[in-house]
Structure formats: structure tokens, C-alpha cells
Amino acid sequence: MRGMGNMQGMMKQMQKMQKMQKQMQEAQESLNQQEFTGVSQSDMVKVTMTGERKVTAIEIKPEAVDPEDVELLQDLVMMAVNNALETVAQANDSTMGQFTKGLNIPGF
pLDDT grade, residue 107 (50/70/90)? Predict the structure, then answer.
């Protein structure tokens, strides 16, 4: 009978893991549907992207456009994109971290 107890314990553990996997998948899908905005210095450029890191909008204030200084605009766009990526990463870490808390899994 001792083997039966182990088998039941393994089945419960598998069910628990399947439930957690489903919750993780739902949480990731929810994150992917959200939009995140990144901004450059002085909010001159705003970049909006999904949780899947796909850019959906770029807003550039007219005063950011200087034909004599295209490099500045390039830097502002880069800042806004990087800021949006950082925001997505933080949301992902915060949301998905609840599932990996206490687990010792390489890469998490």
C-alpha cells in the first residue's frame, strides 16, 4: 500500500503543476494583450507597444523634429523604445514572477 500513497501524491503534484501551467499561460496571454508606453527625455517621443513587444504607435512632438539635428530625433526614438521595452519586462517579471517564486529553476 505504500506505493499507492506515493502514486496519489504524484498525481496531486501533477494536477497542481498543470493548474499552475494553465495560470501562467493565461497570465502571459493577458500581458501580451496589454499596451505599454515608453517615453523619451522631456516626453518628446512616445512609443506604445504590446506585451509581445510589437510597436503599435509612435508619437513625435513637432519640436523634436529638427532637420539640422536628425541624430537627436534618432536618440529620442531609441530612448522611448528602450523605455517601453523596460516597462514590458518589468510587467512580465512582476506578473510571471509570482509563479516562479520559491522555485529553483535555472533561467528564472
Answer: low
Check: CB of residue 73 under 8 Å from CB of residue 61. no
Q: Cα torsion at 89, 34, 56, 87 (round to 10°)? A: -20
Q: In which residue are the cell numbers 512632438 written? A: 61
**95, 31 in Cβ contact below 8 A?**
yes
How many other C-beta atoms can be found within 10 angstroms of the C-beta atom of residue 40?
23
H or E element that contains 49: strand 45-50
Distance in angstroms (rounded) separating the CA atoms of residues 97 and 103: 10
Report which of 67, 49, 69 is spatially closest to residue 59, judged by C-alpha positions: 49
Within 8 A by CB and 6+ apart from 4, the residues are: none
pTM of the model: 0.71
pLDDT higher for 12 or 71?
A: 71
